[in-house]
Amino acid sequence: MDKQGHLIKTPQELLIEPAPRKVTIREYPSPDYQRRWQIEKEQREQAQNSIKPKPRRKRGRKFRSR
């Protein structure tokens, strides 16, 4: 046990019995919730990979090569 009182398992113990895993909300709800979650996830990914316009060409004295 450490100072906080948590049991610390050695790597050998973890191989025999892994640490308890936190169950997320998405693991046990109804299938339609999971489907809705999947659709939302896909929409989020598409929003991140959105098509961006080409960056504007920088003009002016500041950007001219010497």
Can you tell me about this structure?
With 66 residues, the chain is mostly helical. It has a domain at 11-47. It is 36% helix and 0% strand. The N and C termini lie far apart (66 Å).
Characteristic key phrases:
flat, mainly alpha, 66 residues
Detail the topology: elements first, then pairings.
Elements: H1 11-16, H2 31-48
Summarize the structure.
By secondary structure, the chain is an all-alpha fold.
Q: Quaternary arrangement of the chains shown? A: single chain
Q: Tell me roughly what share of residues is in helical segments.
A: 25-40%
Q: How many E strands?
A: 0
So what's the overall shape? flat
